[in-house]
Amino acid sequence: MWTEHGFDAVLRVWPRIETHLRAAAADAAHVAVLDIDDTVLQCHGDACTPVPLGLKTVRALHELGIPFYYVTARRDTHASQMWARLQLRMLGLDAGCAGLRFMPCGTTDVRAYKAAARRNIAKTHDVVLNMGDQWTDFAESSPEKGSAPSSHYGWLDGAHTLCVKAPHRLL
User: Fold this and answer.
1) Strands (E), the chain
2) Can you tell me the distance from the alpha carbon of 55 to that of 29, in angstroms, rounded to the nearest whole number?
3) Cα gap 168→132, rounded to integer Å
4) For residue 163, is it left (φ>0), alpha (ψ between -120 and 50) or beta?
5) 146 or 4, greater pLDDT
6) What are the beta bridge partners of residue 129?
7) In what order do the strands lie in the sheet with 30-34?
8) What's the distance, Cα to Cα, between the start and end of the chain in Å?
9) 3-state DSSP: the chain helix, strand, coil percent, rounded to 5?
10) CB-based contacts of 139: which residues, under 8 Å, 6+ apart?
């Protein structure tokens, strides 16, 4: 596991992600799983902007031909789906997206929902990258205890899935 702190941490984290993705690009069965809010997209009121590390990752995935899925805790309603798709499209964060998974209405356990969605994707694809800003974006074995919310964390989950935990609300 590695940890990077500070405002310039993205500069040190990105080469690790890029190297991992370039190595995985040769296999067509590979995919990535990304969270939306505060991972690739950050909203303040009605204004939304891409998160720099998320934008770089989405662009690299598209360039390398590695499809990706968004797994979000946004509710699975027509309005939520349309709004998410519009936000992602307007900021260029939809190119290469193979699908979006929204949390069913009535579901209260975000960790269980996201774990099930990732398992479902992994049944037919080889997941090489899992990126999110909350510990619920990762498996139950993620190194949550003692972590600092303003740091980047990275580790290999299993044989080859690179997990990247970005800071929550990176400013």
Assistant:
1) 2-4, 30-34, 41-44, 47-50, 68-75, 97-103, 126-132, 152-157, 161-165
2) 22
3) 9
4) beta
5) 4
6) 32, 162
7) 2-4, 152-157, 161-165, 126-132, 30-34, 68-75, 97-103
8) 24
9) 35, 30, 35
10) 115, 118, 157
Share above pLDDT 70 across residues of the chain, in percent, rounded to a whole number: 82
Amino acid letter, residue 148 = A
* Each residue's pLDDT tens digit, 30-69: 999 999 999 999 988 878 999 888 999 999 999 999 999 9
* Cα(157)–Cα(54) distance, integer angstroms: 20
CA dist 27 and 36 (Å) reads 25
Q: 78 Cβ partners below 8 Å, 6+ apart? A: none
- In the numeric block, the tokens 């269980």 are attached to 112
